[in-house]
Amino acid sequence: MSEADRAEGDGASLELAILGSGAAFSGIGHNAGYLVDGELLLDCGAPVTSLMGQLGRSLADLKSVVISHLHADHFFHLPLLVAARTVRYQGADPLRIVGPPGTAQQLDTLGRMAFGDHFWAEVMEQGTPAVEEWRGGRSGPLGAFQMQAFEVEHSSQLECLGFRLERHGIALGYSGDTTLCPGIRELAAAVNYLLCECTSMSAPAPIHLWRAEVEELIQAYPATRFILTHLSERAPVKGAILASDGLLLRLRPIAPD
Ligand SMILES: [Zn+2]
Predict the structure, then answer these.
(1) CA-CA distance, 247 to 245, in Å (whole number)?
(2) How far, in Å, from the CA of 163 to the mean position of ligand 1?
(3) 256 domain-assigned
(4) Predicted structure pTM score
(5) Distance 123 CA to ligand 1 centre (A)
(6) Which of 2, 8, 110, 244 has the greatest CB tally within 10 Å of its CB?
(7) Using N-to-C axis directions, what is the helix angle for 78-88 and 117-127, rounded to 10°?
């Protein structure tokens, strides 16, 4: 995969930092968290406040957070992130948070439970984060990125989203958690790179993708480069990169065959 390498580079490219590559209960990596160009965070299940610092990235530079769904391994560190950024970087531009319906209320519930009503109210007042709730099919600018949300099928009790981000003419997709549904196929067809969940390597995984389904996607969309994450075990998958915690990838434009 020459277009996605681990070297530093310049020119038209996206930097993808893997903060957490582990599935919810796997124990082989932090939970979900992916930083794009140091300013847009995809999911917040990992302890992002410390992991960003370990990679030399600052919470002050973070402009937006995009949440795929409200399960703990994708969402539960968001109150800590919002509070840490507010406390440490007073005067920073308000954080823009995009998530599925229910995000604002759930963030408020978690924040109050985590820090108490008084402190959480101060955080929200001083940090003034803007929470937007998107559904599949919506698109629009998010900072320097053009973003589109895709409805994917994961939990029967939650609206779950995948996303397409485009900048510098490079389109990066993120599956969130999903089954092999129409939404993930549509997303895979619409991007140059797909950060795709692969929860199991050895057997079907209920409400998730497993290796055979991911291999089917890789074969069906040969123009798309796959980066596999949300892992429970590590095994090579032909045609894909395996994510690992702390991995930095520079995604470059893909020349047509
Ligand atoms: Zn998950």
Answers:
(1) 6
(2) 15
(3) no
(4) 0.95
(5) 27
(6) 110
(7) 60
